Amino acid sequence: MNQERIFKVLVGPHVSEKASLVADQSNQYVFKVARDANKREVKAAVQKLFNVQVEDVRVANCRGKTRRTRYGVGRQSDWKKAYVRLAQGQEIDFVAAE
User: Fold this and answer.
1) Which of 37, 40, 63, 87 is the most buried (most CB within 10 A)?
2) Domain residues of the chain, as ranges?
């Protein structure tokens, strides 16, 4: 996988209550990823960018919510998230990441 694709696969970390619970309990991190990204690309991108060993990747497609506005019905974009489990004793520090 080329260097340009690595930066396009990971959109950013997904911060939520559920994501923080998963991070505390089972050493997993949740990322928003590109819609066309697969598990292998997510694993390679996390390993190269954060210099950690990835054990497992799970991917979920999330549907965008339908919202009512004063102009009618609108819809948020669909997106994809990845649950990345790291090897024992490894962690990602988003503040000091290179």
Assistant:
1) 37
2) 3-86
Q: What is the pLDDT of residues 16-34, one digit of tens each?
A: 999 999 999 999 999 999 9
Alpha helices (runs of H) in 10-81, residue ranges in sequence order? 17-26, 39-50
Rounded-to-integer distance, Cα 56 and Cα 26, Å: 11
Amino acid of residue 43 = K
Question: How far is residue 85's CA from residue 68's CA, in Å, rounded to a whole number?
Answer: 37
- In the CATH hierarchy, which fold is given to the domain comprising 3-86? Alpha-Beta Plaits (3.30.70)
Contacts of residues 69-77 at CB distance under 8 Å and 24 or more positions apart, as own/partner, are none
Which helix (DSSP H) or strand (DSSP E) does residue 80 occupy?
strand 79-86
